Amino acid sequence: MSSTSSGSGPRIPTIDLRPWLDGDEAGRQEIARTVDAALGTAGFLLVTGHGVAPELRAAVRAAARAFFALPAQAKQRYEAKVGGRGWLGPGAEANGYSEGTETPPDLKESLTFATHEPFADPVVNAEWYAPNVWPAEIPELRPLCEEYLARMAELEKELLSLLGYALGLERDFFSRHMDHPTYGFNINWYPGTDVVGEPAPGQFRIGPHTDFGTVTILDRQAGKGGLQVHTDEGGWEDAPYDPAAFTINIGDLMARWTGDRWRSGRHRVLPPPADAPTEELMSLVYFGECTPGTTVESVPAPVGRVTYPPVDSHVYLRDKLDSITVG
Fold this sequence. Notes:
Layout: E1 2-4, E2 12-16, H1 18-22, H2 25-39, E3 44-48, H3 54-68, H4 72-75, E4 86-88, E5 109-114, H5 122-128, H6 141-166, H7 172-175, E6 184-190, H8 193-196, E7 206-209, E8 215-219, E9 227-231, E10 235-238, E11 246-250, H9 252-257, E12 267-269, E13 281-288, E14 295-296, E15 311-312, H10 313-323
Parallel strand pairs: 2-3
Antiparallel strand pairs: 1-2, 3-11, 4-5, 5-6, 6-13, 7-12, 8-11, 8-13, 9-10, 9-12, 14-15
Helix pairs in contact: 2-6, 3-6
C-alpha cells in the first residue's frame, strides 16, 4: 500500500485489492483502516489488483474515439439529455451548477449508457431503465461496453463489501441494496482547443463538483488538463495517477449514508492547458447506484457523525441530475 500527498495536501492511498480478496484477516483489517482514513479526508482512493484487463480498457477507448471523430451531424442522431442514453454534445452540462456556481458549460463530449435490465415497476422503468442507444457506425462499441460494464458491476460489489467492512458493519450493508442498480456509464472525451476553442473565464473540462451517488469507478488518463481533487487542508491539487489503477471516489449519497464520516470527493477536470492546447484525454466513468426504492438512512453514532433525514435514493439523484442540465 502506498499513498500520495503534497505537503499538507490530500492523502490518496493506492490499495491492492488482492489481500482483500485472497488474504488473511489481518491484511483485510489493514486495508479497512486505510480506506476509512482516506474516505474521511479526500474521499478518494486508487485501487490496483482489480483484475480488469488493460486491453479491454484500451479497446473501449479506441471504439469511443472513433465515434467522437464522426461529423457532428452523425453524432446528433444520438443526442440525449443529462441522465439519458446517447451522446451529450458540447454545452450539455455545467457541473459547477450542482454547487450553486454559475459556470460556462463543461468543455467535453460524452457517450452515456446505463443498465439495460428492465425493472418491474413501469414508472421506475420509464425513468431509469430507458434502452441504451448504440451508434450504428461503431458496431464494436456495444459488446466492448457491455463487457466493461459487467466487470465494473463485479468490482463495485467488492468495493461496497470492503466499505461495509471498513465501517465495522456487515459486508453486505451497502451491497445488498445493489441487486438491481441503476448504474450509469459515461465515456468523457476532453478535446483540445483545436476542437473546443479557447476556454472562457472559469470554464473547465468538468467544473468543480461532487458526484451524486454511491461509488464512482474512474479509468482516467494522465494530462496537464486532468483531474484535480480538493481538500480543506491542501486546496486544489493534481490527483495521483497510476496507469494500472482505477480512481475511486464516493458521492453525496454515500457520504450521507455514513453520516458524514466519509466525505464526497470534490473534484474538477482542468481546461486544455496553455502549454499543451491540443491535449486530448478520455475518461471511462462508472457511477454505481442503488436499486430504486432504496431508503438511505445515516449510520448512527458512533460510526456516523451527523444524522440526515432518510431519503429515497432516486428522488435524490434526479434532483441532482436536473441541477447540472444546461438549457
